[in-house]
Amino acid sequence: MTGHVFSGLELPPLVAIFPLDKDxxxxxxxxxxxxxxxxxxxxxxxxxxxxxxATLFIGSSNSYIEFPNNGKLDTRRSMTILAxxxxxxxxxxxxxxxxxxxxxHLWMVGPRVLFVRxxxxxxxxxxxxxxxxxxxxxxxxxxxxxxxxYNTGVATLWLNSRxxxxxxxxxxxxxxxxxxxxxxRIGDRRAFRGKxxxxxxxxxxLTSKQIRGARKLCFKKSKLYDRPMLRKHFLxxxxxxxxxxx
Length: 246
Description:
Layout: E1 5-6, E2 9-10, E3 14-18, E4 37-39, E5 41-44, E6 54-58, E7 64-67, E8 79-87, E9 92-97, E10 105-110, E11 113-117, E12 129-130, E13 141-149, E14 154-159, E15 162-168, E16 180-182, E17 193-202, H1 208-213, H2 227-238
Antiparallel strand pairs: 1-2, 3-17, 4-7, 5-6, 6-17, 7-16, 8-13, 8-17, 9-10, 9-16, 10-11, 11-12, 13-14, 14-15
């Protein structure tokens, strides 16, 4: 599968990067997707210490970001979702395909329980994966991720670049062909309270090394918009060749 070319650099199959900071707001800096539509959210301090490096959700049904899905966010088979999450509530969606229902969805279902379900494209549910033993910290920043590998049929949850829960769920096409809600889902009383930063989506199941390499991608010191630094980052962590630097 060919990677996305960002400033002339071939990346792994990259679907989106939403830094969710004050500068980019709800924009996808890969320019693959239209901006998200925010409701009752605001900039807040991020995982890199910047005072406006994240987006704050207040834990109500009207506090969310809705991301249109023009087909580019439809990974269909394998996928990776990565984000920095600061949870300060009970439960709510981090990234939920389908505004009213449940496509693929990554949630907090308890103060310290991260949960993912990779739903089939037919809308049939599969076994969920959750962090009931190795849990995220509460009221603190956590680098979290969820991967599904179509080739192996394995779903994995990641915490601070390490696999913490894994389940074999079979091989199937994913329900990723819907708009996405972050923070709140229509018709659901549960809503995410806390902060989210640097939401990344890939159409492959990244390796541990790649997930670790993407950890500081949106940090100020990572110089995301500095092309030589970006090239160095992806060559070191993803092994892709630089085609042309514009």
